[in-house]
């Protein structure tokens, strides 16, 4: 069967998606490294830069590059919507037969793309890049990341590969399925694992950030981790019932002990300090569990509002560039 993509007139073979949030210092370098690599493929390609509401000169820099090079396309968000949504937008607009997602900061070496393409040509539909090592990141970041991937694996039924970020290549078919998944709190790498198809990995060493600093402060990291876990697992909700059951069981046994002491021994439990302590502990547990439930309800609320995932201020019309983009 001939895939629908084969009948498109202006075929782009590879789409590279680069999400950017305040990356003015790195973007020119990223552009040249990517261009160097993509030229080696000797195929048609487009570089889709998604400006995720940057406050610096990122957009100006990239627009300048666009003037000089017809491979460049720019999607400009009306505000900061977040990394995962920027990737999603890139995939929505990408026209290539294979779509590659890469960070703007050159932590993911563009050269690895060539290895991914080889695997894709060998018939794999998803090629993700597995971090063998992470250079130049704080111990805190490395440990929390490591812990996160392991907790996630324990919690979910979907096989989400360990130590892989969003640096990966996906086939057009996978992107098409992904477009149909409309959930709002997106954890893209989990969704891709969930979709299935033939998946494989290439290993690489994660480099230091080329310039600037991480755009994932602790707050964003926590909300990212919560999205990952709650989108793929009900286990936290179940933990609530387990803990509740154990606590009541403990309370009941303790009550029996107290009654026994009162009736059959001379010692009677006295003191209210212990009671307050116990009340505090259990109230704490109850609040925590309500919080977990709240996380899910919040997400149900998000889905039911059904707002658009992102708002684009401008995007390059595809025809404007078509003939130049073909080599
Ligand atoms: N990013 C984004 N929107 C955000 C935060 C980050 O588009 O709200 C982009 C950022 O520009 C980079 C990628 O997502 O290209 C990964 O971010 P970063 O390198 O800061 O994360 P880290 O590598 O430290 O986990
Ligand atoms: Mg980075």
From TrEMBL:
Coiled coil: none
InterPro entries named in the record: Glyco_trans_2-like, Glycosyltransferase_2, Nucleotide-diphossugar_trans
Pfam families according to UniProt: Glycos_transf_2
GO molecular function annotations of the record: glycosyltransferase activity
Top enzyme class: transferase
Keyword set includes Ion transport: no
Localization annotation: Membrane
SUPFAM superfamilies, A to Z: Nucleotide-diphospho-sugar transferases
EC id: 2.4.-.-
Top-rank taxon: Bacteria
Bilayer topology annotation: Multi-pass membrane protein
Protein name per Swiss-Prot or TrEMBL: Glycosyltransferase family 2 protein
Keywords: Glycosyltransferase, Membrane, Transferase, Transmembrane, Transmembrane helix
Glycosyltransferase 2-like domain boundaries: 15-176
Annotated transmembrane regions: 239-260, 272-297
């Amino acid at each position: 069967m001939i895939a629908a993509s084969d009948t498109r007139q202006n075929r782009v073979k590879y789409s590279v998606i680069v999400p950017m949030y305040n990356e003015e210092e790195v973007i020119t370098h990223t552009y040249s490294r990517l261009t160097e690599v993509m030229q080696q493929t000797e195929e048609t390609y487009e570089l889709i830069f998604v400006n995720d509401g940057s406050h610096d000169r990122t957009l100006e820099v990239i627009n300048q590059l666009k003037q000089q090079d017809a491979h460049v396309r720019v999607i400009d968000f009306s505000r900061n919507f977040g990394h995962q949504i920027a990737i999603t937008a890139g995939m929505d607009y990408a026209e290539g037969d294979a779509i590659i997602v890469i960070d703007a900061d050159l932590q993911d070496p563009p050269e690895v793309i060539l290895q991914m393409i080889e695997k894709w040509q060998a018939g794999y539909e998803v090629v993700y890049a597995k971090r063998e090592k992470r250079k130049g990141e704080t111990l805190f970041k490395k440990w929390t990341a490591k812990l996160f991937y392991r907790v996630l694996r324990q919690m979910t039924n979907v096989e989400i590969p360990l130590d892989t970020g969003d640096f990966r290549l996906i086939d057009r078919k996978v992107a098409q399925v992904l477009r149909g998944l409309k959930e709002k709190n997106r954890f893209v790498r989990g969704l891709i694992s969930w979709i299935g198809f033939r998946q494989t990995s290439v290993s690489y060493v994660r480099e230091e950030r080329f310039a600037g600093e991480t755009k994932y402060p602790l707050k964003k990291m926590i909300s990212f981790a919560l999205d990952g876990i709650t989108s793929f697992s009900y286990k936290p909700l179940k933990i609530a019932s387990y803990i509740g059951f154990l606590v009541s069981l403990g309370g009941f046994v303790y009550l029996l002990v107290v009654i026994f002491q009162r009736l059959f021994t001379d010692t009677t439990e006295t003191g209210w300090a212990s009671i307050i302590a116990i009340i505090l502990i259990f109230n704490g547990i109850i609040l925590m569990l309500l919080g977990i439930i709240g996380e899910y309800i919040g997400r149900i609320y998000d889905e039911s509002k059904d707002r658009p995932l992102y708002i684009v201020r401008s995007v390059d019309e595809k025809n404007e560039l078509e003939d130049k983009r073909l080599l």
